Amino acid sequence: MKIQNLIILIACLMFASCEEEEVSMPRASFEVSDTEVSVNQTVTFTFTGSDAKQIAVFTGDEGHDYDLREQSNSGLTMSKGILTYSYKKPGNYKIALLATNYDKEGNQLLESKAEAAITVNDTRTGLSVISLKRDTYMKEIQGDMVDEVILFAVPYKIRLNNRDIAVNLTKQRIDITPVSESANLWMNDTEYAATANYNLTQPLSLKIRAGSGNEKSYNLLTVNYPVFESFSINGMEGTVKYDDFNFNKTHITVTLPAGTDTGALVATFASADAQDVTVNETAQVSGLTANNFAQPVTYTLKNTVASNDKLSCESTVEVSVVVAP
Question: What's the whole-model pTM score?
């Protein structure tokens, strides 16, 4: 009799335990802070359902597509019913929220799904990088952008293998990286190509069209770093050498007869590009201004773009005087 009572008691406890472990069906529902956003804009997903021990959000973009779960796409787990996210590419995405409930042993698993749609726009028409490729220059030359104007400052010549080689501006490749990966580019109304050669002796127009259809145009201008076409002291013409790596720097050496006093020498020079010529911020006048050439003297030449006074470039010319023994 006692054994029978014990069996009945155990059965009752097991039945009660089973009743306690009964798993309820979760209710999946959620809210989206905004259903039309821009690329990189933060979106908040808030769980409004119930009876879920785990909540995963499939945002619908690459790597998180609910329909591609068998291809290693995964959901993002909510923390305390909240998930913040930002989309990297424009498009129309299907959001799926999967609410899951289960028992302690994991024998019972119940799931419920809710869906929503979101539109991600890309209105960005900016530039991350624009530069001249290093085909000729041994390094890329970055463009200087002010408003919608991009200025390339380039040397007349570069120093290569101990020789000064003239730069050919009619065949230049341009490296352009827009802010938006989905943007399309045109150069003078022709589709941009990274391998194409562009003539920088003429103004160029760059148009960027964002994924949303927004467009923005930039004007590309090119100027040469100003140099001295001629430079002489006491009638002795200087020898010019371009810098090996600093494209905005040239060197001039003037050899003068023995016994020349270098303390106050007047240089005669000409520069078609330089609007301003200074030494230590003191304006220089060809044939009038004297300088002490006991040590090398650095001239600063400034070139301002005629069509846009916000754009300018500067170069330096280091002049050394050598007195013959």
Answer: 0.71
**Rounded Cα–Cα distance for residues 146 and 148 (Å):** 6
Q: Which two tokens stand for residue 107?
A: 């024998």
Return the structure tokens found at 276: 């301003």
pLDDT at 184 over 90: yes
pLDDT band at 55 (very low <50, low <70, confident <90, very high): very high
**What is the secondary structure of 79-112 as a DSSP string?**
BTTEEEEE-SS-EEEEEEEEEEEE-TTS--EEEE
Whole-angstrom Cα distance, residue 210 to residue 183?
Answer: 4
Tell whether the torsion through CA atoms of 239, 244, 250 and 254 is positive or negative: negative
Mean pLDDT for the chain? 90
Cβ neighbours for 100, distance < 8 A, ≥ 6 positions apart: 26, 52, 53, 54, 55, 56, 109, 110, 111
Q: For the CA atoms of 237, 238, 242, 246, what is the dihedral angle to 10 degrees?
A: -130
Q: Which domains does the chain have, with CATH numbers?
A: 24-121 (2.60.40.10), 127-224 (2.60.40.2340), 230-323 (2.60.40)
* 222 and 151 Cβ atoms separated by less than 8 Å: yes
Mean pLDDT confidence for 66-94: 95
Neighbouring-strand partners of residue 47: 30
